[in-house]
Amino acid sequence: MARMSAPDAPSAAPRILSGMQPTSDSLHLGNYLGALVNWVRLQDEFDAFYFVADLHALTVPTDPAVLRQRTRVTAAQFLAGGVDPKRSAVFCQSHVTEHAELGWVMNCLTAEGEARRMTQFKDKVAKGGNANVGLLTYPMLMAADILMYDAAYVPVGEDQRQHLEITRDLAERFNARFGDGGLVVPEPYIVKGAAKIQDLQDPAAKMSKTGSSPKGLIDLMQDPAKIAKNIRSAVTDTDAEVRYDVEHKPGVSNLLVIHSVLSGSSIEELEASFAGRGYGDLKKEVADVVVEALTPFQARMRELLDDPAELDRILASGAESARAVARTTMERVRERVGLLPAGR
Ligand code: TRP
User: Fold this and answer.
1) For a pocket test of ligand 1, which of 18, 147, 209 has the largest count of ligand atoms closer than 8 A to its C-beta?
2) For residue 339, how many other CB atoms are within 10 A of its CB?
3) How remote is the CA of residue 235 from the centroid of ligand 1, in Å?
């Protein structure tokens, strides 16, 4: 399905949209297998919009140069991971200024107490961070991101469920107040069976940047030899059987999942192939599979980061496609809420 850039020739496929914050210097295997692999798959069936949520990242004070670099790295990772800018709009949130504008309209539809009750906000405040107002209104900006594009589905992880619920509430509220057909109420698309990748050193915990130790993480940009070494020192158990059993054998199960998602072999096939073989063999093979998948990814990343002009050109063209939709939505929203049209 070709993505058409002319605003009056929209694709017939249902629209999906998702975003990722540029909050770290590199993705790890958990993000990659949990989110990005799905984004890549979904672009075949849907009219996809994928963006770097750089405005959302401003809720956490970050050095400007670091934010710029992380934004480029995050966008490059989408592309290196297989998001095809010819089929999907890949852009930076801040390049489509309508996001902030619709975010304001969403703020004005949200009760203060409602915003304060959002669990992510409460958690951040409880952790003692001095939260800014941007953090409080984060979900309203996210609602704007989604509602801007009439997205039918929003593929996200379980942790974003509450944000999608408030997005749906806000769309329904908008339509109830200003008339039906104003905004499309999106469906969550919590991908079933999305691979959950655990920390290599602490397989009871999710693989995350803030996890147990750097050795528990597979960083997508890490040197392959280092990755192989971390996999070889993954925590397993004292029994010697290669079998999928999350409860009793979380470390071995995690390695089997990583292998399976990247190699395409089923867990059963892997169990059969490792019957009678030890953990050393398993780790070696998982390391090979991971390194094989990451080698082309890393090469493409380097190409994109060495040629920022090409990356910026891709982002500019994605923003142009996005803006074409955003402009139409904002005209509709302005008209509905009673803002005078800007004479053009
Ligand atoms: N809040 C999302 C996250 O942290 C990122 C995000 C911002 C997003 N806007 C979005 C995701 C819109 C999906 C749709 O992962």
Assistant:
1) 18
2) 13
3) 32
Ordered DSSP codes for 245-264: BTTTBHHHHHHHHHHHHHH-
Residue 335: phi and psi, rounded to 5, are -65, -45
pTM exceeds 0.90 for this model: no
Residues in contact with 36: Cβ distance below 8 Å, sequence separation at least 6, in sequence order: 27, 77, 78, 81, 82, 83
**Taking Cα atoms as reference points, which of 192, 213, 198 lies closest to residue 244?**
198
Residues 6 or more apart whose CB falls under 8 angstroms from that of 2 comprise 11, 86, 87
Question: Is 226 one of the catalytic residues?
Answer: no
Candidate list 196, 209, 215, 284, residue with the active-site label: 209
What is the C-alpha to C-alpha distance for residues 271 and 275, in angstroms, rounded to an integer? 6
Rounded Cα gap, residues 168 and 18, in angstroms: 15
**pLDDT tens digits, 95-110:** 999 999 999 999 999 9
Summarize the confidence of residues 117-135 as an average pLDDT. Answer: 90
Per-residue pLDDT of 203-217, as tens digits, reads: 999 888 776 688 999
- For the question of residue 209 being annotated catalytic, the response is yes
Q: How far is the CA of 192 from the centre of ligand 1 (A)?
A: 18
Q: Give the residue, out of 93, 146, 156, 165, with the most ligand 1 atoms within 8 A of its beta carbon, to mutate for a pocket test.
A: 156
The minimum-distance atom of ligand 1 relative to the CA of 151 is 14
Is 124 assigned a catalytic role? yes
Cα gap 227→215, rounded to integer Å: 9
Nearest Cα to Cα of residue 198 among 254, 243, 237, 248: 254
Distance (angstroms) between ligand 1 centre and the Cα of 31 equals 13
Q: Which residue type is seen at 166? A: I
Distance CA 261, CA 246 (A): 16
CA of 188 to the centre of ligand 1 (A): 12
